[in-house]
Design brief:
alpha/beta; Peroxisomal Thiolase, Chain A, domain 1; 2 domains; five-stranded mixed β-sheet; 9 helices; ACP_syn_III_C; transferase; acyltransferase; ACP_syn_III_N; Thiolase-like
Length: 336
Amino acid sequence: MTVSLLDVSTYLPGEPIGAEYYAQFAESDDLRDNMMFRAPRFRHHVAPDETAVDMVERAAAGLIERRGQDAVAGADVLITHTQMPDVPFYGGGGAMAHRLGMKPTWVLDLHNGGCAAFVFGLQVARQLLSSGAGRTALVAVAQNAAGQVFDQPQVRRKAQASVPGDGAAVGLLAVSEQSPILDVECRTYGEFAGDMTIASDPPRKWWQPGPGEGYIGFTESKITKVLARGNRQVPEVSYAVCDRIGVKPPDLNLLVTNQPNRVFLRNWREALELPPERHVDTFDQCGNLFAAGIPVNLDRAIDSGRLKPGEVVLMAAFAHAGDFAGAAAVRWGGRG
């Protein structure tokens, strides 16, 4: 069966927060001048009482407006990813299904997909629908760490704090020929899984109480490794997909990636030999959106007319310190 990505709808919380917000808190930081942490002009933050479930519900509003409540509530499969689960012991899939009025046969929470979770969700949903598990699926992602982890009083003094932004997205898939998913490639690099760590001062396990606030344990050595892995992995999975669908990377109509920083964005489009106008990014408006980066940028490309019916869009990303990467190609058929 052919499975299509029919539509995507997104949500950015609150008003844009300018770079000067973090500049007022900035202190001496050994990583201040590192290319990984050059701040975007703006980003968005979740509100203090806003949950990941709230964000997904608000992201789904566009789908409901365009396609009706039944298109969402009647989906057979719900696949979710939340950067910061509202409760640490389980994902948000059950609560999201309830909030959206769904009674799905399948509810799956994906956590290891990280910044590539939307691509991972497309792969899982495509496999389930093509095997007869249902006719429609939702892939819902929520990035909510910027306004929670990175805006803690001690953490926001660090260079890493000014880069992330928050957002959410919901994609609608169906057994259909309208906008076929041409191919998906996902790869796990388990040898790198332990390289992303949570640090605090004084050190403790992330769940233990203590005076120091948790943040990502970056060092110059780790950053060098992450840059090398990301620069290699995203082109690798992209070329693998392009080879199987018979499209040379320079002939792609549009590239949509996650957006950790400007350096990765430049290196990826150069590796695929694409001009800037065929690589969508909202880094200066939204910062690093983690898993929400791909669907938010895809939604912007559709709304602005940069992706037209019949064109091929390639979505690609890597996750964490390089323990996962994925790419997916779709021949876009329009929202109609």
